[in-house]
Amino acid sequence: MKILLIGQKGQVGWELNRTLSVLGEVAAFDFPEIDLAQPEQITALVREIKPNLLINAAAYTAVDKAEDEPGKVLAINAQAPGILAREAKKIGAVLVHYSTDYVYSGQKNLPYMEQDKTGPLSVYGKSKLEGDQNIQNEKVPHLIFRTSWIYGGRGKNFLLTMLRLAKEKEGIRVVSDQVGSPTWCRTLAEATALILAQGIKDLPNFLKEKGGLYHLTSKGETNWFQFCRAILENDPEKKNHKVKKIISISTKDYPTPAKRPAYSVLSCQLIEKMFGLRLPHWEESLNLVLQKE
Known about the structure:
By secondary structure, the chain is an alpha/beta fold.
């Protein structure tokens, strides 16, 4: 099987490049080799590689900066997924795409189900929702995985920022009134590979039957303040910390250009039932990352 992976330098893409190699021959690309803001580059790449499986792990993810660049954000997060879906459909390929908890308003206090009403609060959230809809409208066999609070041992993410700040500052201020599920990028990659392996003999028909939109995150819920505390308490290099105090603050104490959902925990019951997965608790994954497993 020929696999086209877009976004190989990102957290999820880097893990996918490793996990997908057991399923087929992976051709992996990222910016500047492929610019998702340029439609002609997308079509040219897909037509050149002619993959059986197309995986889009790339996105414009600078949530606050997105408020000032709506045109670019929509091109990458909304229009590009639709083009990928259309090109995949033309060659009989299937598409896997990653979306976000930011498509929801955060006004619930129970985990969001796949059929719940969306209500993005930011340019980023709106662009990702439009990308999901553009894929669905093309009616290509697909999987869309909505996930949340992605982190890992490389790249830029909350975990690495907190570990750095712990060595630089005596006090760290962290928001405590936004609730979600921290998700290790390797969990996403491994779950993706496990699901695709189930239909490896005939992915188009497998995804016509079982494909669609699914939530895919770690189990459990927490807030950024508690997540930070768990990171620093379990850091094997704790002896090098300078930090003496983690200070809980509210969202209004830390204003940002883009609004975030206050509660964006996603229910993963559907994906676990459909594909027989057991998703790990966020604390279980965090300890593995900190131990550099």
